[in-house]
């Protein structure tokens, strides 16, 4: 699969249809220049995903309605930022993924028909993408990541239908001890799915780089994807969006934010291994504050890549350079440029007024967490809540869980309650406009960012092959 597939999709290829297994034929493509990504809202929104329904100043909340039901009756809502950028840079995708083992020959196809009489395994997919530097990367990722996941799962489909993955894709044992080696490595079927997701993110990132370069676009995006497959929920995150499971008696975090602060050690270690990446403009060391000339020759607190704790370092002149990770909390920046340390895109991004590339430090590989439904008694009001950072900057996990439990308990008979809950969460974080400011009910400042929320019910979920 290549960037040509995405171009084919834009010219009328298969949409996000449940059960769609049609694949484009690259040979039918003509070598034409790649068009710039077409900005539009998610296809499943009312009005076919056109422009904003209200003037920007009102920040109208848009959401799914009964005429466009999502998988499992999921709810979705979004609101554009308060003039932070021209467009809503968040994007979303929700679709069913049909996975078939790749046909390498007739015999293998016969074997597959025995493994699964319907010829398909089915996955259910929800994803959020938070763009920065423009919406282009988020648009491409929302159109393409699920195709990458489909392809990578199809490559290992034979392994994920076995009790334990075979050493060789063909199933042959070149070495009699192959099953023992696999067992010793504790390789499970779910490890194959995790590997497929990691590879899919990497391929999608490569395609975004090719497309952005071909069209003269810039920017990147975070990516948060949830895949329900073979009785397990896989949540893959690269960025600072967040997913939580709100169960009857507990909250289960399904992702962690990747920021320059949370990944300080990885970033510092990369700078230690490849100091040329900093081009003599930055120091990898962390200090409690930006050092000044008077600090030279003094012993000050510092941390290096191998340190969880703090120590003292004799300050040298080189330590006065701008730090690799600077700032605290939401103000922390990687190379003074990005507020996230994982994401897709940003291949052309350089530190201002330098030739230093940010991408070597910006990883596209997600962290994948797994929730096994077989180990839990899922109740009627248990939900997965996914949202971009516009929500989590205002509401903590406990506040979101309290809102979800209270609302769902009071609206048991409403068939559209999950959509309404998504809208309520967005409205809560957006607040109300008072004068020139957006404020919460408790007089705190509300979110000025784009906000996107999925609410996915878990109780009456569809089952796969």
TrEMBL record:
- Name the domain of life: Eukaryota
Low complexity: which segments have biased composition?
Answer: 17-31
Q: Where is the PPM-type phosphatase domain?
A: 73-458
Which GO CC annotations does the UniProt entry carry? mitochondrion
Q: Which GO terms describe its molecular function?
A: [pyruvate dehydrogenase (acetyl-transferring)]-phosphatase activity
| Chain intervals for the UniProt region annotation (Disordered) | 1-67
Tell me the protein's name: Protein phosphatase 1M
Q: Which organism is it from?
A: Aythya fuligula (Tufted duck)
Q: Give the gene symbol.
A: PPM1M
